[in-house]
Amino acid sequence: MKLGVVKAYMLKELTELLRTRLIVMVYLMPSMILILFGYGIRMDVSHARTLIIDNDQSKYSRALTSKFEHSRYFDATVTQMSEKEALHRIKQATTDIIVIIPSSFQKRLLHGQKSEIGVFVDAAFPTRATTMESYVQGVILNAAQEATQNLGTPKGLIIINNRNLFNQAMRDEDAIVPGLIGLVLLVAPAILAALLIVKEKENGTIFNFYASALSKREFLAAKLIPVFLLHSVNIFILFLMATKLFDVPFRGSFTLYWLTSELYILISLSIGMLISVVTKRQIVAVVLTVIITIIPGFLYSGILMPISSMVGESYIEAHMFPVMYYTHILYDTFLIGEGLASAKTQLYLLILVFYALGMLSLGTLFLKKELK
Amino acid sequence: MADLEVHNVTVSYKKKVAIKDASLKANAGEIIGLIGADGSGKSSLMHAIAGVTRFEGEVCYGGVSYRSPKEAEQLKSDIGLMPQGIGLVLYDTLTVAEHLDFFADIRNIQKNEAFKTYRQKLLHMAGLTEFTNRQAGKLSGGMMQKLSLICALLHRPKLLILDEPTTGVDPLSRMELWEILDGICKSEGTIALVSTAYMQEAAKMARVLLFDEGEIIASDTVKALIDSVGNYTYEQTACENERCFSFDEHTYSLEPLHAPHTEPTLEALFFVNALQKGQTLPHIEIEARESQDEVPQVVMEAKGLTKIFGDFVANDHVSMNLHGGEIVGLLGANGAGKTTFIKMLLGLYPIDEGELYLLGQQIRSGKDRQKLKSKIGYVSQHFALYKDMTVRENLLYFANMHRIAVTTALSRINRYAKELGFEDYMDYFPHELPLGINQRFSVAAAMLHEPVVLFLDEPTSGVDTIARAQFWQILQGIKKKWGISILITTHYMSEAEYCDRVVLMKEGRKIADDSVKVLHAAHPDAKNFEEIFLEYYRSKR
């Protein structure tokens, strides 16, 4: 490999990236995706608009309503209105939950009789509805437990002592942002790399490569190294955004995060390059790259659902794309911190290395130094 | 054994054979010309020799033979290729100096004193010394081609392959390009293969290969080639038989005519070849147009039109007028401001200063123009056709844009297709057709709404000889039958002779405006219009 030649080509690539302002895309796009999705995706429910109709107005019913009022998950309003009116509110989407306490609530409790609390949940979004439903149940059970204690009956035999590991506060940011890094670093470098060669084919400047003594490997190195270095900076930018802007904890080894990310960027670049080698038009290259990076990147990054819960085809597909292996290591470094001590991490790292080598050799294989 | 020997090279794309069994020989210092219609296989042969496309057959150069791009790899440092297309191999955002550095570096050239002197010499020859800091995207077409050429020359190739380096380049730049090439071939002993659409250039070549439909049909010196068609060339006269064609004061006929013979030009080769193959060149007959719009005395009048881009004056107080039923040629070097001027007339650029009258009305705003749009037809430098629509669909689309009723549009499209001779190509996509056909149907698209004035911006660049001859017959027909005016820009100085009047532009200013006859009278020494043009460009500052 003639280093001087590669250096000259790289210099030209960098100058072009700067003068065509494509460099803006290198740094704006990843940060934008992180900000837009990081703030945009919400899985847990807080401040659900709750309408409580207290028909009893007793000590016990107030104890229950105050539980709702003091929870950060609910924005509770206690009013008097007919059930019909309340349901109308839910239809108009001005409220999410209706809780109806019957009129003889306290009396029946004290007499040890069964009492029914009416709960209506807006289930237009099923997952959100299930979450809200379980929150409501939790609050009511909690209130009931206290009530039974007050009544002098012996303490509940079973008490749930629940502890959430790795994401104790169950914060959405902690669950989503590392996955997003996996998505961003797959999409952004791939799109840039997809343009690199096909752009020269479309303009005709590819003849400079065809007609010169430049070898295929020199050409690819000259194309990939500048964008690789530029995108490497994103590893640090995204890390800072995750830990400072989204307050995601970082418990693992930074070196592991950094090196795996560099490897992952290389994979992403070689996917884009492979597309650039086989396509003839820039627009086709970009659309193709977006399709084959964003969709699997989203589905298999673990943002929407964990890979372990997938079955059948989706399980196989998830293992075909690099994003799953990388996000596993990402979640480990951010939330768990086991690092290379885990056999799974070691295996996944190895898979990523082979992935990178495989994609790069495919690109070199398919690149032809002649007109098609 | 010759220094370069090409044996039975065949290049095919999928099922289409681009060039079949081509062979040639060349020795050091020779310039070999490749001429022929577009799509006749010139580029494919050049790509094969340059080792950038797969081919069958064998190429031998300097004792090394190769049969594939892979085998050619070892010779790449001796080969220089300049593919077809203005500024094709240049990067828009890199400056002239950066290009030279880049091309030197990818060729792994030592940047020693000798290289620096050579680089300066090339820059000087190309007249680019003062423009080293200008980005390639901002150069004129001629400068781009000169830069591409010196970039291909930087590594002192022994085999130089230039695919239409002068197409779309003005006569002055063309001459300078040839001076560079001549000098290099003589001093460095380079073999140059050059394809060209300008027949005057062929005269400078040692030998000329004539291509036709994927085969080399003749290979000889220019003189021998011209002599071979002498028997078929007559002074212009009426055709008496089918196998006969008249153009530009010559009549070509395979059967003897009762007319005196005349000295043929290289163009004659194409006409005679077409006649020999039994192609009856379609006789072009334009019918009168449907609407009875009166064509006014003065169609367009420009008074001191000025256009300024930043600190660059593209048009400096240009005044001219266009009368009814007149063909005016707008000539000038690349970057002289011809396209800018036409774009101002059309309202594609706002006018910075000056007055413009179209069809007797002064144009002050876009509103004034809107009413006149239906009276103006325009064909741009790069034919504005939609790649993914067939010829028929393209034409229907343009008819719709002009709100022509469907029945009228269909009848007009069919009529033009027949008259302009592209009837057989109606269901093809533009990129499948030769440039000459695209050019004709672009004109048809501009004529659908029956305008009273046509603006044509370099419609003949890159179009082959026969197609250009037919194109001018079309224009003459339109002028005669429709009585409309045509403003046309071109780099073929021979075409100036078909115009009623020519306007010469230089560096944004008008330097001449007269009929060709008057200009010839003023320059009695000039043999053809090209010499008059060069005289204007050299003398008057």
Task: State the low-pLDDT regions of chain A, or none.
Answer: none
Q: Would you tell me which CATH topology of the largest domain in chain B applies?
A: Rossmann fold
Please state the average pLDDT score of chain B: 87
Quick one: biggest sheet of chain A? Answer: 4 strands, mixed
Count of distinct strands of chain B: 23
Describe the global form of chain B: globular
CATH superfamily of the largest domain in chain B: P-loop containing nucleotide triphosphate hydrolases
Structural class of chain A: mainly alpha
Distance from N terminus to C terminus of chain B (CA atoms, Å) equals 51 Å
Strand order of the largest sheet of chain B: 6-7-8-3-9-10
CATH architecture of the largest domain in chain B: 3-Layer(aba) Sandwich
Explain how this protein is built.
The complex is a heterodimer of chains A (372) and B (541). With 372 residues, chain A is mainly alpha-helical. Chain A has helices at 3-19, 22-40, 59-69, 83-91, 105-110, 126-150, 172-203, 207-210, 216-245, 254-278, 282-299, 312-320, 323-336, 343-366; strands spanning 48-54, 74-79, 97-101, 118-121. Chain A folds into two domains: 3-41 and 170-366, no CATH class; 48-150, abc type-2 transporter like fold, CATH 3.40.1710.10. Chain A is 65% helix and 6% strand. In chain A, helix 10 (254-278) runs antiparallel to helix 11 (282-299). Chain A is elongated, with a radius of gyration of 28 Å. The two termini of chain A are 26 Å apart. Chain B is of the alpha/beta class and 541 residues long. Chain B has three domains: 4-213, Rossmann fold, CATH 3.40.50; 222-276, no CATH class; 298-538, P-loop containing nucleotide triphosphate hydrolases (Rossmann fold, 3-Layer(aba) Sandwich). Chain B has 18 helices and 23 strands. Chain B is globular and about 70 Å long. The mean pLDDT of chain B is 87. Classes of the chains: A mainly alpha (372), B alpha/beta (541). At the A-B interface, helix 1 and helix 8 of A face strand 6 and helix 3 of B.
